[in-house]
Automatic annotation (TrEMBL):
One of its GO terms (molecular function) is DNA binding. The keyword DNA-binding applies. One of its GO terms (biological process) is negative regulation of DNA-templated transcription. Residues 15-83 form the HTH gntR-type domain. InterPro entries: Bact_HTH_transcr_reg, Chorismate_lyase_/UTRA_dom_sf, Tscrpt_reg_HTH_GntR, UTRA, WH-like_DNA-bd_sf, WH_DNA-bd_sf. It comes from Kaistia nematophila. This is GntR family transcriptional regulator. The lineage of its organism: Bacteria, Pseudomonadati, Pseudomonadota, Alphaproteobacteria, Hyphomicrobiales.
Amino acid sequence: MTEAAMTSLDRRRPEPLWHQAERAIRARIEAGEWPAGSQIPAEDRLCELLGVSRITVRHALRNLESLGLLRREHGRGTFVRSATVVAGARGLTSFSDEMAALGLTVGSRMLEQQIVPASARVAAALEIEEGEPVALVRRLRLGNGSPIGVQTAHLRLDRVPGLLDEDLSDGSLYGQIERRYGIKPSEATEIYRVGSVGPEDAELLEIAVGSPAFIVERLAIDPRGPFEFTLSIMRGDRYEIRSTLRI
């Protein structure tokens, strides 16, 4: 496939441009022109090749990442993912619902609640421009009074105006934004990595620096598109993933 072939998106087709862009990128991967482990062109270059906006390219890349074909590394770029096993189909629930289902008393402590400019990673996830204001909600999550994780949520400010005027320390954030704005996630993409806990998070989680943890990125989407991107640091000794596998 030549670069010219990637520009053959047809605006007259009923098929959305982001879906056409997704198919064009996927075709290169499946043809072996962008092999596993290789870096694909940057967003600006893909916009030129496909003749579409950055928002359209980001939508296509996000879908391919959720399918496990791509991985995005902050500060480095987007790479074709090697074959991997992604475990665990789970219900679309909040942390509060998840802990309650395990019989734990859910609690939170507000660490930070403010409007901040979107970083490059957050902007790419939420399909906005870098530097646009987002609502940041950072909380220490508790189970039966003991720390389980530190969660930092970023929400599109244009979807939740005035959210930070409320007390968000307790309860489900999803529950609050559904009641106030009618926003209910229809799907979410979660990426789990294993990492070690840094000094600040270790103190909050009451564990030693360098202790193992799950580093979890979650992107929540409703019919209008992505509205929340959350980074969680979950204690490895208090949080686990279980999968039921059937033939």
